[in-house]
TrEMBL record:
The keyword Hydrolase applies. This is Deoxyguanosinetriphosphate triphosphohydrolase-like protein. PROSITE patterns: HD. One of its GO terms (molecular function) is dGTPase activity. Keywords: Hydrolase. Coiled coil: none annotated. The keyword Hydrolase applies. Gene3D superfamilies: Hypothetical protein af1432. NCBIfam families: dGTP_triPase (TIGR01353), PRK01286.1-1 (NF002326).
Length: 375
């Protein structure tokens, strides 16, 4: 795989927290990807929600299908830009490992419950999963991933948590949040591929669910542009095929836009290697016009889908499930699996246990402990 000088090079990786001999047939980033795919947390993503709860339909996106879509988009863009595809894939597949059941509603509940015990951030939880919570290897906890993959997983981090990370790992993955530098270009790309993927598939899932209509999408200039393009070429197009073709064209144009805008930005700053790229302003980007169009789309989805009364109603029940679970486990830790029940940091242990649950397991546990059937 030919890469550009500013791409992350596996043979120049900053390494793993626990040194290991190299693999004879795989690069360091390929090993990271394989460890992620074989992890317990990755398998659980198939039963963790995006917008629609797991029981609401078999065809809606889950965290697993979303992660696969991000990896596909990321690799396509990385290949055109000369970035390291294996690192992009590893980060994309791992970026949601710490997400709670019930999507962002679960994160909000756990952050509230953990307010006096360090808070809860799902990006930081993804790092905890690969650094500490996975139990697959005898010499250490976690997956012992490379610095570059761990850096990409930690997409966001509060200053308070960054300072904690820096105290524990000086010069490590928390430092960039304190000194204002950037992650690798591969990590920057995953952030943008994540946005492209969820905007597109939330349109698809929103229409499939009946919560938004093609008529409502008239308010989204980016979608209308490609719907009209489809209709000019296929005047008889309608229904799901019209929707799919419009989304396909929109995705393709966003990919091309990122490639062109990023190439121009790299040509402006001319980083000579991956570390120089970290010292530049963000280089992987949309053009200004596409950034505005994407922002308009996000505003539409927030108003019409994420805050739809039906979504709000299920979100309220989901929050009740997780809040009551949290307090039940704090009061009776023996109700958790023994590995969590026996830990001394009870509140964090409860948060880790709940964050690792699938939607349906959380619902079953809530019903077992409270006798209530909310779903």
């Amino acid at each position: 795989m030919l890469t550009a000088p500013y791409a992350s090079q596996p043979d120049r990786s900053r390494g793993r927290q626990f040194p290991e001999p190299s693999a004879p047939t795989r690069s360091e980033f390929q090993r990271d990807r394989d460890r992620i795919v074989h992890s317990t947390a990755f398998r659980r993503l198939v039963y963790k929600t995006q917008v629609f709860l797991n029981h609401e339909g078999d065809l809606f996106r889950t965290r697993l299908t979303h992660s696969l879509e991000v990896a596909q988009l990321g690799r396509s863009i990385a290949r055109s830009l000369g970035l390291n595809e294996d690192l992009v894939e590893a980060v994309a597949l791992a970026h949601d490992l710490g997400h709670t059941p019930f999507g962002h509603a679960g994160q909000d509940v756990l952050n509230d419950c953990m307010g006096e015990h360090g808070g809860f951030e799902h990006n930081l939880q993804s790092l905890r999963v690969v650094d500490e919570l996975e139990e697959r290897y005898l010499p250490y906890n976690g997956l012992n991933l490379t610095f570059e993959t761990r850096e990409g997983i930690l997409k966001h981090c509060s200053r308070r948590h960054a300072e904690m990370l820096e105290a524990r790992e000086p010069g490590g993955v928390g430092l960039r949040f304190l000194n204002g530098t950037q992650p690798s270009l591969e990590a920057q790309l995953c952030n943008l591929a994540d946005e492209i993927a969820y905007n597109a598939h939330d349109i698809d899932d929103g229409v499939r669910s009946g919560l938004i209509t093609l008529e409502q999408l008239e308010a989204v200039p980016l979608f209308v542009r490609f719907r009209d393009e489809t209709l000019r070429e296929f005047p008889q197009a309608k229904g799901r095929r019209l929707l799919f073709d419009s989304i396909r064209r929109m995705l393709s144009q966003q990919v091309y836009d990122v490639i062109d805008a990023t190439r121009a930005r790299i040509a402006e700053h001319l980083p000579l290697n991956a570390n120089e790229a970290r010292q530049c302003p963000p280089l992987v980007r949309f053009s200004p016009g596409m950034r505005e169009a994407s922002t308009q789309l996000k505003r539409f989805l927030f108003k019409e889908l994420y805050r739809h009364p039906q979504v709000n109603e299920t979100t309220a029940r989901a929050k009740q499930v997780l809040s009551e679970l949290f307090h039940a486990y704090v009061a009776a830790p023996q109700e958790m699996q023994s590995a969590f029940a026996e830990r001394g940091d009870r509140h964090r242990a409860v948060a880790d246990y709940i964050a690792g649950m699938t939607d349906r397991f959380a619902v079953r546990e809530h019903e077992r402990l409270t006798g209530q059937k909310l779903f």
